[in-house]
Specification:
mainly alpha, two-stranded parallel ribbon, 9 helices, 2 strands, 230 residues, 81% helix, 3% strand, single chain, flat
């Protein structure tokens, strides 16, 4: 029932959302060439080349970029419309959580895009060229790989907020977080090994080490907030 209620609320703003989404989609579609060029410049090694395996492949990549960026803009607008229609009052505490989530996401994005991805791409390209094979990457596969990796790793940097929220809500205790840290470390390293494209331990360590630090920081933050609340 709640889903239908939200849909009815959004129905009143359908034309506004449609027009806004279309405007942003057109804007991002024209900016997609700039984005592709920067991703190529930042991530692609000199020994590798991007190619299009089909006549419409580049256009499809530009459409995907435009759709993703439009969604990033429109989804917060939809949430704000729903909250405003329901007369929801955004408290200072919630605003701080949102700011912290944004900061962690941006930090994870910067770490992944400027450090982890270039390292992984260089290693994978080196493995290809050392085998005597020319490194020609499909533009669709390369952009999707870079985008998906960046999104997943950036979201993983929200770990401190998740752990802190669970501790403050009483779902987990600080003692249990400390006692089970060894299992968490193993889980983080295993997760990094599964989702990391680089088969060498280098990128796995680049991801797992900061996540372990963030986990320890989340324990400290949760302990501090619990003491203040008490």
């Amino acid at each position: 029932m709640a889903v239908f209620r939200y849909l009815l609320l959004l129905r009143r703003h359908a034309w506004f959302l449609l027009g806004t989404g279309l405007a942003f989609f057109i804007l991002f579609f024209y900016l997609s060439d700039f984005i592709i060029q920067h991703m190529k410049q930042d991530l692609l090694p000199e020994s590798a080349r991007l190619i299009a395996t089909g006549m419409l492949e580049t256009v499809m990549v530009k459409l995907q970029i435009a759709l993703v960026l439009t969604g990033v803009v429109i989804i917060p607008i939809i949430i704000l419309i729903i909250l405003r229609t329901l007369h929801f009052r955004i408290r200072a505490g919630i605003l701080l959580w949102l700011i912290a989530a944004l900061v962690l996401f941006l930090f994870g994005f910067g770490f992944t895009y400027f450090l982890l991805l270039p390292t992984a791409v260089k290693v994978l390209t080196a493995l290809t060229t050392e085998a005597g094979v020319l490194a020609y990457y499909s533009i669709n596969q390369f952009i999707f790989f870079a985008f998906l990796t960046t999104v997943i790793f950036s979201l993983l940097f929200e770990l401190p907020l998740v752990v802190t929220w669970l501790a403050l809500r009483g779902f987990v205790s600080i003692e249990s977080l400390k006692q089970k840290r060894k299992f968490v470390y193993v889980g983080i390293v295993t997760l990094a090994a599964i989702i990391t494209a680089d088969p060498t331990p280098m990128s796995q360590l680049l991801l797992s080490f900061p996540l372990i630090i963030l986990y320890e920081m989340s324990i400290l933050v949760a302990s501090f907030l619990l003491k203040i609340r008490e």
